[in-house]
């Protein structure tokens, strides 16, 4: 029983991590129709940026997170302007180009920092003790931040004028342009926002996960599973997707090896989409 | 009864594009469906050919319900062929190859490995090329054809496919008067032994080919009858024929 | 005469590659023979992906998985020829697990190295394509699949040698006999070479027959094909299986030539490389796949010594530039250029370049 409870709480932490990792991908995917194969590398860049901020410059953690967001945001803006913008609507080329980009980012980081794990101290060491169950405060922080990002993004998209413009831009580009909105600029900002989320995710997970040049891969695969399960243009769906995947893999991992759990989940997801090709939650369509 | 639509309904996000329509089509009949833009004509064809799943109702073909079956099954097992609104052909293949791909009787997996261009097959395709007036264009890519010729190519693909029921979604759209007339003759001549369902706008064209016309408006059947009955029905004139001047495409 | 003139430039390049590969053992060291032998297996692998990606438009981000399965099956078979290999006994097992028993016979291992990829591809393909999973979602699943395969191999140390791979293959390979005599590395080279020629011809055949036509039609306009009595899912699944068989066979050939199997030649990174080869060379004419595989690997072999880690960054930038500026790849662009010259030369007709890659 105690194992189960602590596994569920672990699962919540993992939900937070997974959702953080997936959110940027979902935004770029859902709003721009672009599959960013380099998304995992944006997370990786965010993590490295945070490590450098803290280990080299001894910034406080919050500044390190913001720096990571700005850093990946700038790279995202540049990427959109010079690469993605030329490839909208061309799925194969977008995939290949961002793929090349992921390769470049990875190799660049590897040649600067080497292949080894970067260490980063936990910014908050305190923990909650409840009987035999120990919950690190940092894990709670992750959960809170991911909920804030979920709520903030949803509010931004539905309640602000800018969010309206973004959504209108998705639905009817020509119309939006006729209304005098610069839709290229909106694309750029959307991509930048998605990249910033990736950077924040990277910085936040750096203290608890290993930081290596190829760390992006595992996040992008998991994020994609989230998208498959949660539907592609629903940020709330991806939150639920993260929850289902993390909870089940964490709970299952208590009883079997992590890899077996992952394999099992992968198989289950494939079977689910066999019978429910629209994704489990809220997917509108699946190209 | 050959083909019967019973309470057929299509829904898109709560909007009923086709609302409980009932229709009976006899074997060998040529039926024209008309109606203003957005009336739901294409959606009816979509449901008939498996592209759209009906929200409700039945499509009975000799007693078998086709509602919700896949396009593959409907074209393969129930032999319903389709011409899309706006020509939909394979742009990277020559006219000849387009017809060859559509050719019936060689569609099973293994057959596609052992298919040979025998003289019978060549003759069959040549025949079709003659009927659709594209003999000299047979080695061309569709992008070199005129719009009308592309429509004909797709009609040719249906002939090659050789279905029992042919659905034609606006086969004369975007054609010159001359081409439209030729298309009408084509339909009359080569499809005389088939059941044909045609969606069209052009009144002269309808007069040329149809015995029975069904008028659709806002997802419902407004009237059904011969061309003369329909063209004198005041309600039809009100919703449809009057607006024809604006030239729905 | 006019027939000869109609042969496209890619065929000549393919011929040149074959002639070059034919004479390499006569003019170079045994070491180079081994290197180019590996390249030949890579070229076959690239052809396998071109069947899937070029012909059917189904890019696969985890294609090396089938190469990996083929090479692990034959590699384990070779490693167990002389009793239990070290990585298994370190793992604490004392006798061969039952599921490896069929691998004791090299002939059955060879068959399995092709059959298992086919079966996996059929199962996976059936699920993916029957579920109408298309486009990006299909790509994602292929990526997830290879990532999990990699995790699985690395974790099952006892059965797969884990991260360090399978050693002791060479001694097993030594025991093999063909017509009663030992098979040298030169022999393996030519076995691979002849296989390559047959597979290339097979690809050209596949491209030409009705099956090929149908998968092109599906690639370019799948919605239309459905209404013509074809089940696209069946055709895609079979294409998937054919390409997996080719990849598994290439993986099997890789084992005696490289004498080593590890995740480096079957995991995510290697899958990435296969994609890069085809992106560089171009898809859909088979020569592009061969040129891409040969060129990138040759450059990697010569340049990685000079540039070290920088090489990979250079490769990434080259890939990016090719994707942006020459989306059809080197050979694809060449073929197109030749085509345009012919069309303009003979008819002076406006040519619309149709996009051959409707869907990935
Ligand atoms: N896939 C779809 N999603 C949402 N609405 C659709 C879809 N297809 C058709 N509609 C709507 O259904 C109505 C009927 O469309 P359609 O059958 O194409 O009309 P017609 O062919 O008679 O011009 C239209 O209002 C159209 O907007
Ligand atoms: Mg219509």
TrEMBL record, chain A:
This is Urea transport system permease protein. It comes from the Bacteria. It is found in: Cell membrane. Keywords: Amino-acid transport, Cell membrane, Membrane, Transmembrane, Transmembrane helix, Transport. The chain crosses the membrane at residues 12-37, 57-79, 133-157, 224-246, 252-275. It is a multi-pass membrane protein. The lineage of its organism: Bacteria, Bacillati, Bacillota, Negativicutes, Selenomonadales. PANTHER family: ABC TRANSPORTER PERMEASE PROTEIN, BRANCHED-CHAIN AMINO ACID TRANSPORT SYSTEM PERMEASE PROTEIN LIVH. Belongs to the binding-protein-dependent transport system permease family. LivHM subfamily. Its main location: membrane.
Automatic annotation (TrEMBL), chain B:
InterPro entries: ABC_AA/LPS_Transport, ABC_transporter-like_ATP-bd, ABC_transptr_urea_ATP-bd_UrtD, BCA_ABC_TP_C, P-loop_NTPase. Residues 3-243 form the ABC transporter domain. It comes from the Bacteria. Pfam families: ABC_tran (PF00005), BCA_ABC_TP_C (PF12399). Gene3D superfamilies: P-loop containing nucleotide triphosphate hydrolases. The keyword Transport applies. One of its GO terms (molecular function) is ATP binding. The keyword Plastid does not apply. Keywords: ATP-binding, Nucleotide-binding, Transport. This is Urea transport system ATP-binding protein.
From TrEMBL, chain C:
It comes from the Bacteria. It is a multi-pass membrane protein. It is found in: Cell membrane. The keyword Ribonucleoprotein does not apply. The chain crosses the membrane at residues 12-33, 39-54, 61-80, 107-129, 136-154, 188-206, 227-251, 313-335. Pfam families: BPD_transp_2. Keywords: Cell membrane, Membrane, Transmembrane, Transmembrane helix. The keyword Cell membrane applies. Its main location: membrane. This is Urea transport system permease protein. It comes from Pectinatus haikarae.
């Amino acid at each position: 029983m105690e194992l189960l409870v602590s596994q569920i709480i672990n699962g919540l932490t993992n939900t937070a991590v997974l959702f953080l990792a997936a959110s940027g991908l979902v935004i770029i995917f859902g709003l721009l129709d672009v599959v960013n194969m380099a998304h995992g590398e944006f997370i990786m860049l965010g993590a490295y940026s945070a490590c450098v901020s803290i280990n080299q410059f001894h910034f406080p953690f919050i500044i390190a997170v913001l720096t990571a967001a700005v850093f990946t945001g700038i790279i995202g803006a540049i990427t959109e302007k010079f690469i993605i913008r030329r490839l909208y609507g061309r799925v194969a080329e977008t995939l290949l180009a961002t793929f090349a980009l992921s390769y470049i980012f990875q190799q660049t980081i590897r040649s600067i920092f080497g292949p080894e794990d970067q260490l980063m101290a936990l910014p908050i060491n305190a923990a909650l003790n409840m009987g035999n169950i120990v919950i690190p405060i940092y894990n709670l922080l992750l959960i809170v931040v991911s909920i804030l990002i979920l709520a903030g993004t949803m509010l931004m998209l539905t309640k602000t004028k800018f969010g309206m413009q973004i959504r209108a831009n998705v639905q009817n580009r020509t119309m939006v342009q006729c209304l005098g909105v610069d839709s290229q600029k909106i694309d750029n900002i959307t991509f930048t926002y998605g990249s910033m989320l990736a950077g924040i995710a990277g910085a936040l997970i750096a203290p608890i996960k290993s930081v290596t040049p190829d760390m992006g891969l595992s996040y992008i695969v998991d994020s994609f599973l989230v998208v498959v399960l949660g539907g592609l243009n629903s940020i709330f769906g991806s939150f639920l997707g993260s929850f289902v995947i993390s909870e089940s893999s964490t709970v299952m991992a208590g009883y079997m090896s992590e890899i077996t759990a992952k394999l099992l989940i992968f198989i289950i997801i494939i079977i689910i989409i066999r019978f429910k090709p629209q994704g489990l939650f809220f997917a509108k369509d699946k190209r | 009864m050959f083909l019967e639509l019973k309470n057929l309904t299509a829904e898109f996000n709560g909007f009923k594009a086709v609302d409980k329509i009932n229709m009976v089509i006899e074997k060998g009949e040529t039926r024209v469906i008309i109606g203003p833009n957005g009336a739901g004509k294409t959606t009816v064809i979509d449901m008939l050919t498996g592209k759209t799943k009906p929200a409700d109702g039945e499509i009975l073909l000799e007693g078998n319900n086709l509602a919700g079956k896949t396009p593959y099954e409907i074209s393969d097992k129930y032999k319903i062929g389709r011409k899309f609104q706006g020509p939909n052909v394979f742009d990277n293949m020559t006219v000849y190859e387009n017809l060859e791909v559509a050719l019936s009787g060689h569609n099973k997996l293994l057959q596609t490995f052992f298919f040979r261009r025998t003289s019978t097959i060549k003759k069959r395709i040549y025949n079709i090329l003659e009927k659709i007036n594209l003999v000299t264009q047979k080695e061309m890519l569709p992008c070199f054809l005129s719009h009308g010729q592309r429509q004909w190519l797709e009609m040719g693909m249906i002939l090659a496919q050789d279905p029992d029921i042919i659905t034609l979604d606006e086969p004369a759209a975007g054609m010159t008067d001359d081409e439209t007339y030729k298309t009408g003759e084509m339909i009359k001549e080569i499809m005389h032994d088939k059941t044909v369902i045609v969606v069209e706008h052009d009144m002269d064209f309808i007069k040329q080919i149809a015995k029975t016309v069904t008028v659709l408006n806002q997802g419902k059947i407004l009237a059904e009858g011969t061309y003369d009955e329909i063209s004198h029905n005041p309600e039809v004139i009100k919703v449809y024929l009057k607006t024809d001047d604006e030239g729905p495409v | 005469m006019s027939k000869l003139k109609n042969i496209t430039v890619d065929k000549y390049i393919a011929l040149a590659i074959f002639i070059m590969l034919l004479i390499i053992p006569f003019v170079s060291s045994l070491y180079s023979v081994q290197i180019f032998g590996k390249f030949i297996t890579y070229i076959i692998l690239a052809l396998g992906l071109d069947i899937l990606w070029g012909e059917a438009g189904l890019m696969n981000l985890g294609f090396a998985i089938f190469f990996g399965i083929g090479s692990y099956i034959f590699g384990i078979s070779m490693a167990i020829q002389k009793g239990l290999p070290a990585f298994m006994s370190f793992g604490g097992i004392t006798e061969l697990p039952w599921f490896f028993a069929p691998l004791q016979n090299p002939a059955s291992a060879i068959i399995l190295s092709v059959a298992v990829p086919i079966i996996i591809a059929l199962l996976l393909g059936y699920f993916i394509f029957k579920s109408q999973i298309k486009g990006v979602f299909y790509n994602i699943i292929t990526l997830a699949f290879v990532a999990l395969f990699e995790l699985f191999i690395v974790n099952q140390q006892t059965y797969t040698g884990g991260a360090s791979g399978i050693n002791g293959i060479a001694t097993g390979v030594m025991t093999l006999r063909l017509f009663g005599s030992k098979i040298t590395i030169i022999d393996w080279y030519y076995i691979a070479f002849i296989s390559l020629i047959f597979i290339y011809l097979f690809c050209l055949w596949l491209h030409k027959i009705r099956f090929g036509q149908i998968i092109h039609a599906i690639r370019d306009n799948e919605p239309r094909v459905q209404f013509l009595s074809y089940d696209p899912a069946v055709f895609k699944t079979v294409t998937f299986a054919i390409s997996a068989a080719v990849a598994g066979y290439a993986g099997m050939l890789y084992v005696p030539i490289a004498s080593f199997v590890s995740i480096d030649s079957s995991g995510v990174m290697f899958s990435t490389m296969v994609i890069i080869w085809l992106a560089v060379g171009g898809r859909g004419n088979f020569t592009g796949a061969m040129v891409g595989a040969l060129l990138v690997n040759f450059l990697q072999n010569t340049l990685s010594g000079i540039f070290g880690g920088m090489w990979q960054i250079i490769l990434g930038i080259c890939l990016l530039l090719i994707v942006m500026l020459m989306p059809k790849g080197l050979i694809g662009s060449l073929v197109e250029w030749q085509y345009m010259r012919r069309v303009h030369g003979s008819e002076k007709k406006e040519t619309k370049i149709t996009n051959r890659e409707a869907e990935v």
